Amino acid sequence: MKKLFVAFAVAFGLHFSAQAGLAEGASAYNARNYALALKEISPLAKAGNADAQHLLGLMYYMGRGVTRDYKQAFSWHHKAALQGKAAAQYVVGAMYYTGNAVPQDQKHAVTWFRKAAEQGHPEAQHALGLMYRYHQAGMPQDMVLAYMLWNLAAASGNRNAVDQRAAISRQMTQEQIEEAQALSRTWKAGTPLPSTSRTGGVH
Q1: Mind listing the pLDDT tens digit for each residue in 17-30?
Q2: Does any domain span residue 30?
């Protein structure tokens, strides 16, 4: 599973609260007016606004309006991630997982993916599901938890999770599927995800 994340879908959906400068910056970014976006966003990011830090991190990651610089991208995302911005936590996890601009560290990747997944971030839930499915990054192999996470991600529109869930369900017992569905039904965003299941561990 070297290609666990063939092309890390660093999901760049921009959902920001309306805020002076931020809305203008996000609109400029979406309109591909990156110079204006940079002008609006930079002061907010430097002042500690997590949404602005995330957007500035994306600009450095993608090389939009600035020279592509993964170290800067990581730095701004990490600042936003520490403030609880789920999309930034996901990018930090992805960069640790792939060793992009930081030493590769799968334990750190799992920590950040879990933080984002527990906020309901679908790409992070999908990534965490892959780790449970394929026993990656020191995670136990657990089909029930993988299915549960893909169920949650699929409900938020992650198509890869829909495919992964369909594939894994063919290798699971009815009891395992029922447990996974019950876990995803009762879990609420903002609460810890389970780290073990009753029937899903591979012994």
Answers
A1: 546 678 888 889 98
A2: yes
